[in-house]
Write a structure and sequence with these properties.
Number of helices: 7
Distance between the termini: 32 Å
Shape: globular
Structural class: alpha/beta
Order of helices and strands: HEEHHEHEHEHHE
Largest sheet: 6 strands, mixed
Length: 175
């Protein structure tokens, strides 16, 4: 198996399209540099990052296809936003993701920073207690590895041919 497969990093982003979706992408620690380079190469000209709602219909299929070939898998935690408000959905899906990540050889978790970082940390501490098995931080959307969960969640939520392109990389968890 080797060192490359022993350590895993996780990256989390959310998507809202009917259902609330929190996407946790896992990648081997040894692949981080290559994945950063590959994601930067996919960034549309004139854009500072990949955010699928802003790439346009022409580029979206290529980006999804290219990301589907990368060594990155994800679990998408889905919750109907009709049952609960968005904050409750985020809390429940993040808690489920953190519980799952503790069962993997994750050494580092990065969550896309937003105005909910404090609440996210509260949920993570509640799940992990004082002895977190991995380091967790929030980072700006400019981190190329946070673009991967954005692409996965967007393609899944879009459905149809976009979902079909990436489905082999995704496991869906209903919360």
């Amino acid at each position: 198996m080797g060192e490359r497969l022993l350590r895993v990093h996780a990256f989390i982003d959310e998507s809202k399209r009917g259902e609330y979706a929190l996407c946790a992408v896992t990648v081997a620690a040894g692949d981080l540099t290559a994945l950063r380079r590959q994601m930067n190469a996919l960034r549309p000209p004139g854009h500072t990052r990949i955010h699928m709602t802003g790439v346009g219909k022409k580029l979206a299929p290529k980006i999804v296809s290219d990301v589907a070939r990368l060594e990155a898998t994800s679990r998408i935690y889905l919750m109907s936003s009709r049952k609960v408000n968005e904050r409750q959905a985020r809390d429940a899906t993040l808690a489920a993701a953190v519980r799952d990540l503790t069962q993997m050889p994750v050494t580092n978790l990065v969550i896309e920073s937003c105005d909910q970082d404090h609440e996210d940390n509260r949920i993570i501490r509640g799940e992990l207690g004082g002895a977190a098995p991995f380091r967790y931080t929030h980072d700006r959307p400019s981190n190329p590895l946070l673009w991967i969960p954005d692409v996965h969640a967007w393609a899944w939520g879009r459905g149809g041919s976009m979902r079909a392109k990436i489905a082999h990389r995704i496991t869906v968890v209903r919360v």
